[in-house]
Design brief:
This protein has about 1000 residues and is mainly β. About 5% of the residues lie in helices and about 35% in strands. It contains 5 helices and 61 strands. Strands 16, 17, 20, 21 and 22 form a 5-stranded antiparallel beta sheet that branches. Strands 51, 52, 53, 54 and 58 form a 5-stranded antiparallel beta sheet that branches. A 4-stranded antiparallel beta sheet has the order 3-61-60-59, with no helix packed on it. A hairpin with a 2-residue loop joins strand 45 and strand 46. The longest helix has 11 residues. The radius of gyration is 28 Å and the shape is globular.
Amino acid sequence: MRFVTIIALILIACSAVAEDGELFMKNVSKTPELDTNHVTLRVLYKNVPAMTAEGVLTSVVYTDQEGETVLERDYSKPLVVFYHDGPVVNPEDSGEFPGHGQRDVFGAVSLDDGNTFLRSNLSNSGDKSSFRLRDQTDYFGDTFRLFANSAGNKVMVAWASRYANGGNPNYAMTDEDKADLAGYLGIEEEDLYLNDMWGVSGSQNSSDFADEGYPTVGEVPYAALWTCRGTLVDLDEDGNYEVVWRQAERLTSARRDVHRIEVGVAGGAGFVVTWQEDPDGLRPGEGEGPGEGWSGAVAHHQTDVWYSYIDWNEFDKVYSGDYSAPFDLVDYAEEGTPAVGVPMSMPVRLTDNAMCVPVEDDPYVYEDFDGNGISDLCAYSVPVTEYDAAGNAIKTTEMCVAEDGRLMRGNTASTRCRVNLRGYDTDGDDVYDEAWVVLAYEESKGMGEEIDYDPNDLIEKVDMGKNIMYHTFDMRNPELVSQGLMLNMPAVYPGDEPTAYASGTERLVEYPVTVDGVYNYRFMQIDPDPIYSDQAGMESVLLQSEICRRFSLISQPPKDVGESGTVALGMWKQGIIRQGGPADVYGRRFVTPEGFDITVDNPFDYSCMECGEWLFEDGANPRYVKGLCISPPEALSATSLVDNADAVGPDGSNSIGATAVDLASVFPFNEAFDDIEMAMLEEANETQLPKVYEWSQIGPDFGFDPDLTVDGTTGLTPGTNFDDQSWENPYDVAKGHRGFISGDYIMMLYCWSPNWLANTRGHDNYNLYVRRSFDGGQTWTTLPVDYTDVQEIPGTTNLTADGTTYYEWMGPAGGDSEYKFIYDLGEGEFEPTRSMSLLNGLKETVLDPRYAPTGGATHSSVVDDYADPDDTRDPSKFFITFEVGDNTTVEFGEALPMNMYYSRATNYGDDFEMVWEDETAIGVIDELSTDNDAYFDWLEGKKDVHAAEASMCASPGGMFFWTAWEEWKEDIHENVWDTDATLRRLMFLDEESDDGSGGDGKQPGGGGGNKGKTAPVLE
């Protein structure tokens, strides 16, 4: 293996390429004249005879960097690349609107490891229309927002489409067909699998975006949800295979607008799909953060998360002309594409955002799901009165109150749901037959009436932002119209901040909570509750919370849990009430309890969330019917301010910010301590925040210690950052958090900048950071000597736990005084979050990081007729990519994507395989400040080409790494052309390594295309 390694503190020269194989790259779509986007890669972890796209058996030849053959195989793992492709027109002045197009969804399959691809149009709707606009023109069935997942020999892709005809939706089945299917499935005809309880059927609607401030966009039809199933099947007795697609299946009617789709899978159990539906159409969005416009991040009231599933055993059933007797796909012998024999379940509402009023014939109102004789969602009703700005009553409506006390007011919205499906075995045959659904999403706070708030109005101000709501249930028994569990804790106020809002109102009232008789949390109650108390005359306690968004879920099947018991880590971004403002990444652990029965018990249950202190556990508070955890979540990205002699104060001088205490004290919080006093930051006055140039992280301890006193300046628990509140360092900002868990091992990564405000103007930038835990997220360290993985490490892998050495840039970004702060850590030591991109200067910024554990997201290992050492999973390896953007464009929106970089991690991430800037360089550890840096290698390797959002998979043993992405060309006027889907295959030959370990733990971090400047090393 050619990689950077340090032996006796000496940096040995290495090859200028991180992988061992010859550069292998393929254009998958080959349609430069069409618009190609949302490229997604899935690998089916089964070895099959290698075959070209023309159906000819072949062998796959692998060559090294010198072009010499090092491996030849007559088998391959199927690769499936999905993408949208078709003509599109982008109106001027339309923000980030994706355009009016005729794009279709394509699935491209390769059975010869990417050498050739067989492309199939899966949607076949781009040239069709189901909607006539008011100007009497037909709107074509454009597609967007695809998401795919796979397990075993099965793959499913889902997408949104403006075409809402055909597709045999469940709700459109005849009574006779429903009866036949119910008989086959062994269920009642009234079962929710077939019964349209929530009004899925209906007529397609549209939005006129001229009303939203985008007249050039005009009228756009709502989108319907579609899915398509594919199965890898044996073609003949010679063992030839192909992926057989079924006809696309439509799930919704487009009476509401579909967006933000996800697909979850558990091999042996089934597939699930979640999405959001906006009854008033997609909102363009006016977010100040990146990627807000047209993304589904903002939504109208009553936007719900919906759910549907298909059982594993029914996935491959095809339609025979009779729903009472669908047959197996392998028995299909007719011409043409088969139709699904068992449709996905009828979509159901998971969230409770839709208004409920007592209408006699509405099953949504009077259904008694728990069979106790009381309507679940309308146990009784109350008059709800709306008021104008002057306090005058304008309308009173009778609204339902649910059995658990929730007012079904319809003034909230749920967006950006993330879902995992984790299988478990109920009968001991080592095959998953059931699965737990785990999901969470952002939900608006439900206090104000409009998203375009007035910052001088208390209720509209504190309503800004969202909370993170969590759900879990059995795959076949979804939790219907539920409130969910709020993961974020209420906003904590430090020692002596005011108890009333700056406007002089008394509606923010101190709500202290004593923990173990020692610590008083200072929460703020919004009293009276503007909805329950003001409008409905009901009692509630509503606590102020910060802005929380962008949930990301790390989870694993129950059988894979290690000694820590950690089965999931839910993460989100959180900060003060300032749109697009400073924020940190937080997380909650879910831990299996003692006596846990893996065949029955749900390890993701609400009670399994690690939490020391709860409020409202009796469920009597309708704002928090599942209780409210008030123990701090893990602050995964938090840093401490350190002395900062070069900091510049708001007046432009150096008189402020000499110490960390000064930096904290001059941050311009408003009088309510929940936002920034923007008068301090007016660009017209050429004022700015002090700059943070140095920072630190403290650990490894995490958790509240009731014996310690409170210090509102330095933190809740001195000696650690892991229970910090977001305001303890209000200057930094984090995003892009994601990762994976394997037994007790967690790898999580995120992007971070020390200076939030400067970063929004391109005067600072994001770098990529990684941190790791070997005890399920309790502590974050380098690889311990005694670490034992739940999964056995292959005998060919020689782990070396001797610590790691890395650095990050500190000092004024872009100046000559930027320097490298070096971390030299031993085995099992607390590891401050590790900079991987190492961008210095201001030209580039990190956009979206991606990762791939070995064996894919579900850690698959292959068991079939082809014996291959690489099919034994090595959990000590994983892959990372990140993309950099043009930081000079940040001031006008999100940075323009430029290039992507990659590396393979070994020794559980103690080491990363990288390249030298100068391959002849040899130095010692103290000379890491020279220009001869090691850094991540260039992924797409093409000049004058933009690339973004890599989709990645890795072989179980870490020998192969496949990644696909969208690339395009663009000029300074934002004219785009030559968009295509590209695949790259990388090969790593570990047998060439001296010790087979992939490194000895003493190499520096990675880097991007912008290398470091010579500067003194901080001792």
